[in-house]
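Quick one:
INPUT:
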């Protein structure tokens, strides 16, 4: 394969997109918009309508191309980031286009690419990192991340440039004491909470973690150790068992998560005295903003730990630990609704309820443009899309957060 390919855009997964001489679309990792590249021999995978390949030679570098600062990105082909080779302004443009393309192509909506709120920090923003393990039984495991081109391989992590310095400092302390982690270790998560505590969440398939207190003695009192059996629930085994539930969902970019939620709540307008549903509400961050705005809030989430913590910090709201689709018939009729579903999008039963009994305003916070577009098309029967804004919660990656504001048609 000797085709020289011009990269015209970035696809949803972060690959560069171009066309082969025969007209087929080709997806190429680690390309930048404006690059002209020759595919590497042996990397080409052809399909009837599209192809995949890797850069062999960079024939002409785009003005949007920069040198990736993270050694893991180039040496180990780390799959955690997809866009370190792209200048930040071009990353923002690419993400706007990813959202706009999904809304037009999947959602069949006549919209322009949305405006995007740039990140507060381009680096060191992640408050959580999850590492995989690999190793034969009886040998010290390799703990790190997966290369994008070898998902079954794990390279040892030295530093992650998009993860908070405090967590990387914790990782440096841990690396010399891996024998104190439960064995066989299957996954290791480090997390920083809003009170400054650092959490070590060790998943293993073997016996309970019995020497966690010894490890915590080396790491300091501000560390909480959790043990998670492969098929069970996580529990604290060293450190205070009250406080932030480190296994509950929270945005890994807390600062930008707050910016996104504030904008979403503002789109509802005056909610004083109104009942608002906060579906997939997690630990209650959106509910707290709604309560401050004077709303009567019902927050629903399937994570019991998250709901328990939300109840403790926000007694003014009603928290329900359940799947949203299971409890909607029992909830008081809402004047407005905010939904923040997982990557799979809205459950079909939630969509049916929202379309059968439309509310004046519906705000949808999405972490996946494709499922957002699908759900907006389904909601389109009784709602009009009033505005869309993207938020860059994940610089250096192809992920993008989007908020869509709908009104009853």
């Amino acid at each position: 394969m000797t085709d020289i390919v011009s990269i015209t855009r970035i696809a949803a997964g972060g690959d560069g997109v171009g066309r082969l001489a025969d007209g087929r679309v080709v997806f190429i990792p680690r390309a930048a918009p404006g690059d002209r590249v020759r595919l590497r021999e042996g990397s080409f995978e052809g399909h009837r309508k599209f192809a995949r390949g890797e850069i062999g030679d960079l024939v002409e570098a785009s003005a949007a191309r920069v040198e990736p600062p993270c050694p893991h990105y180039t040496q180990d082909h780390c799959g955690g980031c997809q866009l370190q080779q792209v200048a930040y302004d071009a990353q923002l443009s690419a993400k706007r286009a990813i959202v706009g393309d999904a809304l037009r192509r999947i959602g069949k909506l006549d919209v322009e690419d949305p405006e995007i709120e740039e990140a507060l920090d381009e680096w060191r923003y992640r408050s959580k990192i999850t590492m995989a393990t690999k190793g034969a039984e009886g040998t010290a495991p390799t703990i790190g991340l997966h290369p994008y081109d070898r998902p079954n391989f794990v390279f040892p992590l030295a530093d992650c440039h998009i993860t908070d310095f405090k967590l990387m400092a914790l990782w440096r302390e841990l690396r010399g004491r891996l024998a104190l982690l439960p064995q066989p270790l299957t996954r290791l998560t480090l997390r920083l909470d809003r009170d400054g505590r650092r959490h070590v969440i060790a998943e293993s398939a073997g016996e309970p973690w019995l020497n966690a207190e010894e490890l915590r003695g080396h790491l300091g009192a501000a560390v909480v150790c959790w043990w998670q059996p492969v098929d069970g629930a996580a529990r604290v085994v060293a450190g205070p068992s009250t406080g932030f539930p480190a296994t509950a969902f929270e945005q890994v970019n807390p600062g930008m998560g707050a910016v996104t939620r504030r904008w979403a709540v503002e789109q509802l307008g005056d909610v004083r005295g109104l009942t608002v549903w906060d579906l997939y509400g997690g630990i209650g961050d959106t509910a707290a903003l709604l309560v401050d705005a004077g709303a009567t809030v019902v927050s629903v989430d399937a994570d019991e730990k998250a709901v328990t913590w939300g109840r403790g910090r926000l007694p003014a709201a009603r928290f329900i630990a359940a799947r949203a689709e299971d409890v909607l018939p029992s909830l008081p009729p809402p004047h407005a609704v905010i939904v923040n579903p997982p990557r799979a999008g809205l459950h079909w039963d939630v969509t049916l309820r929202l379309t059968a009994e439309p509310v004046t305003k519906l705000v949808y916070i999405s972490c996946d443009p494709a499922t957002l577009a699908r759900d907006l098309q389904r909601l389109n029967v009784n709602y009009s899309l009033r505005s869309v804004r993207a938020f860059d919660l994940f610089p250096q990656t192809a992920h993008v957060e989007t908020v869509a504001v709908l009104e009853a048609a």
